[in-house]
Amino acid sequence: VENLWLVNGRPGQVDPADRGIAYGDGLFETMLARDGRIRWLDYHLARLLDGCSRLGIDGVDEQSLRAEITAHLPSRPAVVKLIVTRGVGIRGYRPPHGCEPTRILAISSWSGYPADHYTSGIRVRTCELRLGENPRLAGMKHLNRLEQVLASKEIEASGADEGLLLDTSGRVVGGGSTNVFVVRRGRLLTPSIERSGIRGVMRRIVLEAAVAAGIDSTETELERNALDDADELFVTNALSFIRPVRELDGRAYAIGPVTRQLMTSVDERHG
Amino acid sequence: VENLWLVNGRPGQVDPADRGIAYGDGLFETMLARDGRIRWLDYHLARLLDGCSRLGIDGVDEQSLRAEITAHLPSRPAVVKLIVTRGVGIRGYRPPHGCEPTRILAISSWSGYPADHYTSGIRVRTCELRLGENPRLAGMKHLNRLEQVLASKEIEASGADEGLLLDTSGRVVGGGSTNVFVVRRGRLLTPSIERSGIRGVMRRIVLEAAVAAGIDSTETELERNALDDADELFVTNALSFIRPVRELDGRAYAIGPVTRQLMTSVDERHG
To answer: Distance (Å) from the C-alpha of residue A186 to the closest C-alpha of chain B?
Structure first.
């Protein structure tokens, strides 16, 4: 699959006055396409449109987005990234009236994560960088991602497969590009994403799969030390699904029965 | 003056894979040009390059930037906005090796703020929105500005000329697009910008002008209620210089002698 980039439905570039560049004034989704369809497209679009509503980005039409995305899907596995910005504005934080949103669609081939991430688990390090807290931005997959960029450099330098990010108050938020789940005495726990972090599509799928499987699950505040007495630990996103954690900061974790059950269940769930 | 937009030195558009769009992975400066030169260009470039260093954006050449900016200055007053992003990357937070930074230069005419902002002062309201805290990002004029976008909508709805922004802990950070100064018993105070906010060029000029004028000044933590017993209050940025505050949340302030002295001093200082 060649890389395909479409700006407002056509090959092209972006106006330098776009507020996506100026202020990160927009949102994105990163989606997995397999067999010519996007997995969990409804959930991706629901989150995107919720973000538009929270940011006051008007004029995004769900049916057009859906048509544009599905018109260009290859049959081989691909990553489909969709960016929606508020549109063009000359200068100043205040959005001009009558902004027309900009759509950027990028489709690239996808070779997946290494198989041993799933069979043996991944290594995770807690990052020094802390995430700022802002309930007005929490949950959205918006374009203000400098914290994640800085964290990614820290993770690369550590040699780990993924980083664990805490907020300013020391609570667990998630991984560098994943959500985090803890299994403790058969119960599933995940950070509540009220002040930092992204409410991942795969996080939603896993919580639903837990309900279907009769596994007790809770969205809650988690201190870093709550992970030390976890029985199982895993991270999620829409590309990687569920990856078990085999080591966090030198402490070993087994790939346990709850993780395995959810891995099977998520893989079987249709999107 | 017509609007002029240059991308990497030429009229054109931006690659949709630019990390400035994807993650707000870059910085900007908004500068005032008068009589064919930029005021305080050295300070603007110093802040920009410090930000590049903090974010690990390599390959920005100060001399080329300086030449490019000054090559296109009109003789009439203009706003010169310079954006520098990390450059193009296909996908993923981690910066690819060998990124070439993208430069966007925008020049537009400038008619100034209303005269009564200077003669009578402006009206300010404290925003509901709180700014997240992150020492790793504080001070820089980076492209992650969704908080300021949301605040600008709140300010517009309030009908005030500017907003006052507090951080998550309740400390004063600054205005929506300004820094804030307090005069109390002849002393000048301004928030220290260690956890949120932008370290403004005009803020730096004012602090230097205070030293030159023998006015005692301190960068410090300021609670919101510290503004209630202020004798004078003003806001600053590189376009508006010093604007006195005549009202904050219904409380009236006089345009006092320290503010007047600094207004004169800053206006006379060469950039």
So the answer is: 33
